[in-house]
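Help!! Second protein's tokens look totally different from the first
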Amino acid sequence: MLSYVIRRILYNIPIYLVIVLVVMAMLRINDPVTAYLSKNPTEQERKLKEQELGLDRPFLVQYVTMLKSIATFDYSAKSWYQETNTVGEVIGPSILPSLKITLPALTISTLLSVCIGLVAAVNRGRMIDRGLMFFAVVGMSVSFLVFIILGQYFGAFWLTDKLGTEIFSIRYEPSRLTGNFFADWIKFYSLPVLISVIVSVGYDTRFYRSVIVEQTTADYIRTARAKGCSQRRVMFKHLLRNALIPIITRVMITLPFLIVGSLLLEVYFSIPGMGRTLLTHMTNKDFAVTQTIVALLAAIFILSNILTDVLYAIVDPRVRLS
């Protein structure tokens, strides 16, 4: 097993090196120093700023320095936008708020989608299956932004008006934090998580239903039923176990996209997560923070791929031999 994990890591390292190389090259297509200094900087001003920011060094040296900082978690370079803070001090506080949205949303949407997909597959062709698939298609068809607007209106304004007290807030305000993790999460994070779950469930339910329907026609399912196994035992012990590989694939692919997709939620709910931090510093031409966040997001994609391969090997040992 260890040798398999090492092989997967070695296989993905060159891919990550190429991704970082491409990202750094693309960010340098337009001179970042000239963009940062705005209109008509003099040549002397530009050169002084290049020296200050380390951009006067050869590209290969900058590339190696970037890889070294990622590998050693050394983010001591200065932010261009928040000049008194380092890149690490800017990015560090934004990680936990993003995880407070991403991890609960991923967990709830996966469990809910698998359960709904299982119910729909077991009742394939019946009214309950058609009804669930109708709502799944509706959920897929409506824009993410529409769900955010509706969620803010009904979850915050309308509900507050009806109950006379605020349960969900549409704006993250540090001054209103109580110090109680659960209470603060309910007020500031539960509504974005609920919106993210609603958006994800439509796509995931259709996928899991198709996977489960495909498994229901397999020989081992017919054999289990012929032996007299109950429907519950067939579904939960035999079918779901064999459907784990596509489920794992879906979950691990979804995770990085949920982190990136939380950008809209973080912007509309003023949550200081990685997505909002990236957008803020891109807008303010903060080259150092932008390239570091993009490189970290790429690392998350690569790590999710490695973790997917490892989970494959645990679920199905035949994968290691192939």
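Here's the second one for comparison:
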Amino acid sequence: MARYIGPVCKLCRREGMKLYLKGERCYSEKCAYTRRPYPPGQHGQGRIKLSEYAVRLREKQKVRRIYGVLERQFSGYFQEANRRKGRTGEEMLALLERRLDNVVHRMGFGSSRAEARQLVRHGHVHVNGKRLDIPSYVVRAGDRIELTEGARKFKSVLASVGGADKRPVASWIDVDRAAFTGSVKGVPIREDLNEPEIREQLVVEYYSR
């Protein structure tokens, strides 16, 4: 599957907020958005009033980029959420949060979702005692997640665990970073999600137009 491989700092500047796509760098003074908090390009510092459609589009793009999924897959999450009984926007966020790569990131084993995704893809993550290399796998309540013995020695993993205190811990997850293990306590609700700047209703309006 194709994936964006360009400079991710430009994505934060385009969306007008930190998306935390580069892990520890995003928490430092080297963060590109901290130094240049305006869109990239020659006219980036100019002020442009966005149409209602553009506002909804930007919100959709922002959420998609936070979780690192492509348009077709993101649209699939919306369609699945739309078939559920709850509020569509909240159901969509719950599905995105329960992706295995996101859970590994939330547990502190990857400083970014991209780093966590790489751990999963390379077979360094076990779910309920079995290796699982599908980043989009949706975890369920009671699932136990752990890193392989080899992954526990990776410099990137140790650095991520060492800096995990900077990142909020998801209330719907239990984690023992010293043992490189964690478990899923339940399905997250909107109040459990550490993404206060997401306006999911705009995403619903975008796809419902």
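Reply: Different proteins will give different token patterns, so don't panic. The longest helix spans residues 52-67.
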